[in-house]
Amino acid sequence: MTSPILDLDFASGEALDPRLSFTRASTGTYFDRNGQLRTAPANQPRVDHDPLTGRPLGLLVEEARTNLLKYSETFAVPWLTSVGAFTGARNTAPNGNNAMVWFEEYTATAWRLFYQDVTLTAGVTYTASIFAKIGTRFRFTLSLQTASGTTQASFNLKAMTTTTASAGGGSVAGASIQHVGGGIYRCSMTGIAHPTETAGKVQFNLLGDDGSLIYSGSEFNGIWLWGAQLEAGAWASSYIPTGGAAATRAADVASMPLAQVKGWDASQGTVLVEAAGLQYGSDAFLAVCTDGTTGNTVGVYTNATNRLRKKVSVREHSLR
Questions:
Q1: Which of 58-67, 100-109, 187-196, 258-267 has the lowest mean pLDDT?
Q2: pTM beyond cutoff 0.70
Q3: Domain boundary at 210, 245, 280, which?
Q4: Inter-CA distances, 249 with 65, 243, 277, Å
Q5: Does the residue 32 lie in any domain?
Q6: What is the full DSSP assignment across 57-105?
Q7: Which of 22, 68, 77, 238 is least surrounded by Cβ atoms within 10 Å, i.e. has the fewest?
């Protein structure tokens, strides 16, 4: 068997090939080998890890995303609460800081909720997410709401189960729970915004142990929360912190001049890509060989119908 002329094993835990160029015009977060959420400076590659086992997962390459929530960790104005409050209590957050906050219910028989108003684009797919840790309560909902439409997911942290519902023009696409260590779970809900309404809100509702929205509470009951995010997209991307305004994580771009690869033959060859956590979109390339034009491109990509595809577009002359 012929050995490859280029073998980039990003999951080996070793240093990246020095011939590889990497850009990202912003900071970006990732989990290190100790399961802690870290922030990489602009233009620094992120080798992500399984937060539970520390196993390297490979080079994290993401499209640009924006956290539309103005405050992702400070649950004060513009966050608004009803029959519940954030106290001064703190717990260890995924980034190692004493930053998780305690959302405490009141004693009244009522809904317990907080929300932030947002401006949506009608018909666009959004994903809301938050990090949560069991306190004396372990069930809650995340929802994306407009005047007449609701997209909602309910989470049970003890059972690690989710249920979804939608009404009035909202459309739910899915929900997930990911354990990120230390008893902390990242919970996300994906839904399609109302087809005509743009004034909306992201809302969190604390639930009773039986899943009730309206129940008789206690001032000592609550749940730990941190890291709220709302982004346009069909999945929760890596966490983007905000502190007063929406924030954007720029796209990751990794490349290597093929002229530096010994044995490269522009007239023939094979490209093999192994990837995990694939998220499908329109022409989302996993690997591409190109001279920078659409006329000379060979690559492997995913499409919007959840399929892997190859793209071969070559003019009469070579790809040199």
A1: 258-267
A2: yes
A3: 245
A4: 5, 14, 18
A5: no
A6: EEE-----EEE--SBSS--STTSEEESEEEEEEEEE-TTSSEEEEEEEE
A7: 77
